[in-house]
Amino acid sequence: MPVLSEAASTPGTPTPDTSAVVDLGPASALSCRECGERFPLAPAFACTSCFGPLEAAYDLPLGDPEGLRRRIEAGPASIWRYAPLLPVPADVADKPNLAPGWTQLVKADRLAAELGVTGGLYVKDDSGNPTHSFKDRVVANAVEAARAFGFTTLSCSSTGNLAGAVGAAAARAGLRSCVFIPHDLEQGKVVMAAVYGGDVVGIEGTYDDVNRFCSELIGDPAGEGWGFVNVNLRPYYAEGSKTLAYEICEQLGWRLPDQLVVPIASGSQLTKIDKGLRELIATGLVEEKPYKIFGAQAAGCSPVSQAFKAGHEVVRPVRPDTIAKSLAIGNPADGPYVLDIARRTGGAVEDVSDPEIVDAIKLLARTEGIFAETAGGVTVGVTRKLIEAGALDPSLTTVVLNTGDGLKTLDAVAPTTGPTAIIRPNLDSFREAGLAS
Ligand SMILES: *Cc1c(COP(=O)(O)O)cnc(C)c1O
Ligand SMILES: [Zn+2]
């Protein structure tokens, strides 16, 4: 749960950043998810009345769905086509930013055949983003909030992908960056975080320790003027995940899918995908019909899945131990909301073991030519498990998210993947290897 801290410019505190001067497009206020109280737009993340998380509230463009749809379709091939539904200024596409999104929705017929899905199976492949994970979507939104509130340093606590996304986005926007990661992350993610020239700090501890440290830093003069994309800018950052919902529906021909399988780290992405789908219905961009959202975790870090199966409404923190490091958050802030959404929509939350994750990465690569990071192995593995258990209906249109690139988690598959043969450069040697046609 985000903790309120003094320097986070809590709502009600007079700051130079009042909503009167902050232009974040259709976002008009922050509202508390728990008690509904409203606050002016500010770098704040917890309600002063009840400590509930704050989220962006909008004046949504209602009443002219045809006009809105035309405007979106005429927009750029990035998340900025949805600027009328995001907390960003109208001219966002003209500013220096990574313009993420509009990634491929792959019709995965060969994977569908293997899994027995007959109703249409799609993979939303977010490895195609500028830093090769879905995190570019959320960071791009946080950067606009950082600019609006006058922050000059961009920061975050990260399980890996976020650090790279922040480093790159800060470089493009001309901001300083200083990011915090667990010291034992995959090399690909550490190098990716550092290559953009910002500061990278490895912390001896788990992601949850890193996150706690960042909350302390926000309350200290050492962190003054810093925008932590997933802490004091969280309400704006989180909205970026809605674009996954928008894109999936637009790419399906402005239609809701029947089922989605979404990975869970903090649970923010899943929660905002649901919010995005509901906004599409509210604005009339899609026709209302039931949809089910399924959450996916690694067994080695499955606090939400365990709570779902036990019928609990709260999530008991765990200590992560899994190869799916990008999802290794033991104390997921949005866990209770994920439970609500899975139950309300008729979905479920399931988890798969590390060997099942590796198998699923290879299955997706072999059938669709998509090399997913471990988080993609988690969603594909969970999809397979849910179908086998009869929890996911194979006769319905299903979208599975791949949120990151396999090149960042080579260690997961390297021990069991390599050359078929090593031969001398002659035909005899080739024939001996048994590979001739
Ligand atoms: C961060 C991340 C997620 C989801 O994170 P949430 O905290 O649940 O929003 C999913 N996949 C990858 C690869 C990530 O890096
Ligand atoms: Zn509240």
Architecture overview:
- The protein has two domains: 6-62 and 135-237, Rossmann fold (3-Layer(aba) Sandwich), CATH 3.40.50; 105-132 and 241-416, Rossmann fold.
- It is 35% helix and 14% strand.
- It has helices at residues 65-73, 109-115, 135-149, 161-173, 187-194, 207-218, 234-239, 242-251, 268-282, 303-310, 335-345, 354-368, 374-388, 410-413, 427-432, and strands at residues 27-32, 38-39, 54-58, 105-107, 121-125, 153-157, 176-182, 199-203, 226-228, 259-263, 292-298, 349-352, 398-402.
- The strands form three sheets. The protein has a six-stranded mixed β-sheet, with helices on both faces. The protein has a four-stranded parallel β-sheet with strand order 8-7-6-9. A three-stranded antiparallel β-sheet has the order 2-1-3.
- Zinc ion is lined by residues 32, 34-35, 37, 47, 49-50, 52.
What keyword list fits this structure?
disordered N terminus; 437 residues; Rossmann fold; binds pyridoxal-5'-phosphate; four-stranded parallel β-sheet; 2 domains; 35% helix; binds zinc ion; six-stranded mixed β-sheet; 15 helices; globular; alpha/beta
